[in-house]
Amino acid sequence: MYFAPEEHNPPHFHAIYQGQKATVNINICEIMESELSRKLNKLILAWAEMHQDELLANWDLALNGENPYSIDPLK
Predict the structure, then answer these.
(1) Rounded to an integer, what distance in angstroms lies between the CA atom of residue 65 and that of residue 75?
(2) E-strand spans in 1-75?
(3) Which of 17, 27, 44, 60 is the most buried (most CB within 10 A)?
(4) Is residue 30 included in any domain, yes or no?
(5) Nearest alpha-carbon partner for 55 in 41, 72, 40
(6) pLDDT at position 75 over 90
(7) 39 near 51, Cβ under 8 Å?
């Protein structure tokens, strides 16, 4: 998640794997844009759904220029 006051809505995060990227809407846990495989997109969405509240809290921190908290990876 990029964190800067000028970050744009909707709340989202960027997932990067082996140089390929995906952008995920946090509010609705939906892929906005992706270069990743369908399988990786599903894993990212599963993780986002499990951590949606934490991601939204981090989004608020990021908009205030504060460092977001670390969130556990998918296990």
Answers:
(1) 29
(2) 12-17, 20-25, 30-34
(3) 44
(4) yes
(5) 72
(6) no
(7) no
Predicted TM-score (pTM) above 0.85: yes
Domain that holds residue 19: 12-63
Inside any domain, residue 7: no
Number of domains comprising the chain: 1
Contact 34, 23 (CB under 8 A): yes
Non-local (6+) Cβ contacts of 6 within 8 A are none
Residue that the structure tokens 């981090």 belong to: 58
pLDDT digits (tens, 9 = 90+) for 2-33: 665 566 789 999 999 999 999 999 999 999 99
For range 30-57, the mean pLDDT: 97
41: enclosing H helix or E strand: helix 38-50
33 backbone dihedrals φ, ψ, rounded to 5°:
-160, 140
* 57 within some domain: yes
